[in-house]
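Weekly puzzle thread! Below is a chain. First person to post its structure in token form gets bragging rights.
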Amino acid sequence: MNLHHYVGALNVLGDESRMRLCALLRGRELSVGDLVRVTGISQSRVSTHLARLREAGFVRDRREGQHAFYGLALDTLPAAAKGILDELPSAADPTLSGDQKRLADLDSERRGGLPDSFAGEMERHYSPGRTWQSLALGMAALLDLGDVLDVGSGDGAAAALLAPYCKRITCVDQSPRMVAAARDRLAQFPHAEATLADVHALPFRPASFDAVVVFHTLTYAERAEQALAECARVLRPGGRLVVLSLDAHEHRAVTAPYGERHAGFSPRKLRTLLSGAGLTVQFSDVACRESKKPHFQVVLAIGHKPHESTLALPTRTARPGSGKAPKKRAKVG
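Winning reply:
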């Protein structure tokens, strides 16, 4: 091997991305897609680097149907390059170590297990069948509900999850088309109904429901205070009102086209509205945050309608299920 070949071999390895690819292909075959996923390098760049390595005799390729697999060509690898690549496994380099860890995660997925890197952030990663819809269905199965009112139910998507676990569920919406769609969706449940109604004047007698849900409806209501007062009116003593709403934000240009009248409600504002409706606020806080810009947040608020013979319990700031029970005040008299 003359000086020209030594320089050529070193030039091929004189690129960090090509060194990473060679380290991954040492002792096994991988596809372009595998290399893209492990390294984070774009597909076009990976293909370009592999073409250069193959031309120099560093890698070989093998086709299997429409897929191509690449491996390190140990039989044609220049001796100078082989000496360098042989040292890579023992190198204490964080980039190379990270590549090997992601490769191990990829192998784990293909064996049917979850990668260790999922630990602590499983909600951010996909695994077959583990969708938010399936989790919602599973959690709904824990419920044992009585008479439920879904205010601003839309086409009944949420009601369909709750219906199997309710004694009776009633959906109301201001859109005739949405009500028709909800009736179709809930047709399999004889104890479910959908009707056209205005949240500001609900067509029900006082104390008609054990639970009222207001999921992403309050920002569309013209008068939020009156809407929640109506929900509290039809709620039975001891019942719960559950609200999901966008947190207060400054992105009206994004939400206005959807018909929203209010730029969200902060946890403090929802607490005030529920208290004003005569409910004891059990919880009001940000429940989740969208990963995409502008990173909308959703507030979960829970109000409890006290029995007439007892005083309202103080507001609890701990998250539901935290194990911290609110302190009770003594009865008057």
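Puzzle host: Confirmed. Bonus trivia for everyone else. Residues 3-124 form a domain with the Arc Repressor Mutant, subunit A fold (CATH 1.10.10.10).
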